[in-house]
Amino acid sequence: MPVKNRLAELQPEIAAWRQHLHENPELQYELYKTSAFVEARLREMEIDEITPGVGKTGIVAVIKGRTNTSGRVVLLRADMDALPILEDTGLAYQSKTPGVMHACGHDGHTAMLLGAAKYLSETRNFDGTAVLMFQPAEEGGAGAKAMIDEGVLTRWGKVSEAYGLHNWPGIPTGQFAVKSGPLMAATNTFRIVVKGRGGHAAKPHDTIDPTVIGSQIVLALQTIASRVNDPLKSIVVSVTSFQTSSEAYNVIPQQVELRGTVRTLYKESRQLAGERVKAIAEGTALANGAVAEVEWIEGYPGVVNHEAETGYAIKVAEQVSGVPVHPILPTMGGEDFAYLLEEVPGAYIFMGNGDTAGVHHPAYNFDDTAIPFGSSWLVGMVESRLPIA
């Protein structure tokens, strides 16, 4: 039976798994119920090896092919964590945990990889080893790195290639989009504390006003994108929080704190941005008689797809969907699959979720009709990259 037809046959069961996960979301590394559910489903299959507790609550499942003359290992990854968002979908299976919901479709990613696991464990129509990585803490916790640090790329055989997917609202359900090279941005955050001299609002000349200085810094930071960085190399600099040490109407505060994010597609832009945030904040403060303390925090690296592996991913996607893969521009969102792509060749692809609310929105919901396409693509990556001679 063709892969697409077999996965379509499994769709109701996989959708039920997805809806159970949606109803019972958990955050970051605290995925005890989620991991237990995933492990239980895996143990119902003919999986060769199941290892829970990798990266705290991650799970690794190993499926061996019918033959292993190649000695090669292909890794498939799904993220399992939810977001701290109050759900507003009205679904029958809406989140039972107030303030926590699967607003990014990780419930769908996990269910689709479980579906692929079931198919691969039954058919084993490949030569080599498939390593399935069920990952915690993609949303800000760097769960991929935690699992890498605990050997996901080596303990079950040296991984040759790694593949993952993410649902994408706005692309028709059952279709795919991808590009080689930079696909998603590196994420960085900063915290700037401007220390001046407070006083009465009626006597600004007796103060060093950190509010005015902080405002100058906010505007000056925008020159990183407009006047410092190469305009062909995308960068976003956003100040997202501005807080003073006083809430009184007639008090100039002693200090203000700015927080924000910088997103970059190229390593040289990332380094440049870090240097300029520090120089602009400290220099502006100094010019006004104040002091600025700057904390620069590097988050996820950028997702950079490998050229050859992107080509393999496109070929399978077009076989699954029956239509050409959509061209797509890079997005400035972040994704910790980037850590895998820094270590091994691979590709990360977007799969259509139809005309739905966007990810990270309280009305978002994963489209269950996309399941056969996503699971088939995952299966196809294993079978095409580990063909039986």
Automatic annotation (TrEMBL):
Cofactor(s) this protein requires: Mn(2+)
Q: Which GO terms describe its biological process?
A: diaminopimelate biosynthetic process
What are the Peptidase M20 dimerisation domain coordinates in residue numbering?
A: 189-282
Sorted alphabetically, the keyword list is: Hydrolase, Manganese, Metal-binding
Q: Does the keyword Manganese apply?
A: yes
Co-factor binding details: The Mn(2+) ion enhances activity.
Ligand binding (Mn(2+)): 104, 106, 139, 166, 360
Could you cite one Gene Ontology molecular function of this protein?
metal ion binding
* Entries under PANTHER family matching the protein: METALLOPEPTIDASE, PUTATIVE (AFU_ORTHOLOGUE AFUA_6G09600)-RELATED, PEPTIDASE M20 FAMILY MEMBER
Q: What is this protein called?
A: Amidohydrolase
The scientific name of the source species is: Falsigemmobacter intermedius
